[in-house]
Write a sequence for this structure.
């Protein structure tokens, strides 16, 4: 059994060999679906009315509930962060659900999750420096001056813990499903893995997307 | 011939290490169970705060889970990447 990220093609740019892997292709598919969805919503936005009907109800429900969620977690004055986190949440959820379509979820690759956690880390650092620069730099020397290295490691551990949590969860689901598909006779693969797909892709995927966004929000809120 | 026996030993110990690396899953298992039990108690005492309790419990569980996930990663490394076997092969040039 192979669970490696297979390279589908190689491209040479400036004498450097680049691999187009399964993760790239499924990321592009997820991105394409989301972009089409966004354009459809944008087109529908021009025909919005005061009293919502049909599609408008769904869109308003999604945006409003996420807005309330951000307001509850980060406070009403930090509502603007919701714009970024809504995109992150939708992308992570869509990539976790993409396992249902038989693709390799992009989040089962450490590169994808690392990108998101590094972005969160930069967001935390820059928000803190812009809002409360003095407190931020002072927090590295608390409670004792000699604890500076420990505090730096603690700050950098955001990157590792956030990325590895999502990566480990999704990859373990991928591996368990791969083993189940490998062991079952072909006739039974129609029925039995469906329940596992529901647990590992839908339930764990939604929970992981939710946890990533809420933890990022809490990290930012603690610093500003 | 002896070197093949040694290579087999390296592989065997890697497989054993993969199993042992999952012992940390014990901690998160107990911890998450306790968190869920306490959340149930809290909901029973104060059913109106159900949403807040659920969110807090999920976040707490996610943080507890981290050590288990680290163990899982080590196990996956041992099973699918085989770092020690690769080091053995490059050292002795099999």
């Amino acid at each position: 059994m192979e669970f490696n990220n297979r390279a589908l093609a190689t491209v040479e740019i400036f004498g450097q060999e680049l691999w187009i892997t399964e993760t790239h292709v499924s990321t592009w598919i997820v991105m394409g679906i989301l972009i089409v969805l966004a354009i459809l919503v944008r087109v529908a936005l021009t025909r919005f009315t005061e009293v919502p009907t049909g599609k408008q109800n769904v869109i308003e429900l999604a945006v409003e509930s996420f807005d309330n969620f951000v307001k509850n977690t980060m406070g009403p004055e930090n509502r603007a962060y919701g714009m970024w986190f809504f995109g992150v949440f939708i992308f992570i959820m869509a990539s976790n659900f993409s396992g249902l379509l038989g693709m390799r979820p992009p989040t089962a690759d450490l590169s994808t999750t690392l990108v998101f956690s590094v972005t969160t880390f930069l967001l935390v650092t820059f928000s803190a420096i812009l809002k409360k620069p003095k407190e931020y730099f002072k927090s590295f020397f608390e409670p004792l001056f000699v604890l500076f290295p420990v505090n730096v490691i603690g700050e950098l551990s955001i990157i590792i813990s956030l990325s590895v949590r999502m990566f480990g969860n999704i990859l373990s689901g991928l591996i368990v499903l791969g083993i189940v598909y490998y062991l079952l006779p072909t006739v039974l693969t129609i029925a039995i893995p469906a329940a596992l797909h529901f647990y590992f892709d839908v339930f764990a995927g939604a929970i992981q997307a939710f946890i990533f966004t809420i933890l990022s929000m809490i990290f930012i809120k603690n610093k500003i | 011939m002896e070197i093949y026996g040694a290579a087999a030993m390296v592989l065997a110990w890697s497989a054993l290490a993969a199993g042992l690396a999952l012992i940390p899953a014990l901690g998160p298992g107990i911890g998450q169970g306790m968190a869920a039990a306490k959340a149930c108690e809290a909901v029973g005492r104060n059913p109106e705060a159900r949403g807040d309790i659920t969110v807090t419990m999920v976040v707490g569980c996610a943080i507890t889970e981290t050590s288990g996930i680290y163990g899982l990663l080590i196990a996956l490394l041992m099973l699918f990447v085989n770092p020690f076997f690769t080091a053995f092969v490059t050292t002795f040039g099999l």
Notes: The longest strand of chain A covers residues 7-13. The mean pLDDT of chain A is 87.
